[in-house]
């Protein structure tokens, strides 16, 4: 096991970028808790109102991010991120003063739009600040921030609400974004000289040509294309049952007070998984193998949980929490390798467009999945949806593994793209 996960933090630019991400991620989860509490408890609205909030959070990533990412690639990344954070502070103020759901949704959409611009710029900055041989560690640290804040953010948000009132998390979120700006101000100017791909004109072309260039790169880069398809399908399957998880937990015997243990188990597993992958980076030679392999094991766990919901498999609660931990652990086996493939298989000058297009595909699958899951639950049962999701996850991973084994002698699918690697003299 190689103790080099924190190696990229020795780079001043990445250290500033990572510090900004930690506070940005924390702010996002403080925000998510506060909005749900306001809608459900303060305003007394139903589940459809919560669903509308979640949909509006995701929409900018689908309909705005991919189109605006062309400008992100053309402009300096550091100023973009700082302006985005300033606008997020402004829109958080709008959320604080929102008098009803409709005004709140407007500011949720605006804040999501800015976030859909910030993330491609952040992804591009990682590519520009970290050398290729340290990308696995950098991507792991980034994913570790996301997973850790998923645990800390909701817990901290609940505590802040209890101490200071229902809207107080917005104030702390704005402070977090301001601290993120301070981190970015310490970041040295990025070297944004681009390495052009063969047969690509060096001068900036038309907007539509630049937009389609990013999509074309995904279509022509097999490793990247496979990883995006695999992760998008996995996201669809996860969100198929994610909204039904509370009913699954009830069937397993969890009460309102112990349901949080199940969610915490998933979150803790994802953090531990990220740390392990950060120390052991040999997976970077075969990232798709790891993604598909963990899918098979994840699917088996999901099927077991479905059987438990039906009463066929009866286990103590602590074992179900352990299963949730393993589910989170295996989830990192998909998220971290995907992030590495996205970074290593994309040229620096196209990082914004490619990451935004990939996020658009993933977010679209995440948005439509809950509705499909709810429909299937009505037609069959919640347990049936869970078991079907598990079977689909197993089949997805198995199909990709069989494809890799079939092609292993005739293709180099797991080798990094020549076009992305630096050509050393």
Q: What's the layout of helices and strands?
A:
Layout: H1 12-42, H2 47-63, H3 65-74, H4 77-97, H5 101-129, H6 135-164, H7 168-185, H8 207-220, H9 222-242, H10 245-252, H11 259-279, H12 287-310, H13 317-344, H14 351-379, H15 382-407
Helix pairs in contact: 1-2, 1-5, 1-6, 1-7, 2-5, 2-14, 3-5, 3-14, 4-5, 4-7, 5-14, 6-11, 6-13, 8-14, 9-12, 9-13, 9-14, 9-15, 10-12, 11-13, 12-13, 12-15, 14-15
Explain what you see.
With 425 residues, the protein is an all-alpha fold. It folds into two domains: 1-190, Growth Hormone, Chain: A, CATH 1.20.1250; 214-410, Growth Hormone, Chain: A, CATH 1.20.1250.20. It is built from 15 helices and no strands. The model is unreliable at 194-204 and 417-425 (pLDDT under 50).
Order of helices and strands: HHHHHHHHHHHHHHH
The geometry reads as globular
Tally of contiguous helical segments: 15
End-to-end separation: 32 Å
CATH superfamily name of the largest domain?
A: MFS general substrate transporter like domains
CATH architecture of the largest domain: Up-down Bundle
GO molecular function, one term: transmembrane transporter activity
Organism: Cytobacillus solani
Subcellular location: Cell membrane
Membrane topology: Multi-pass membrane protein
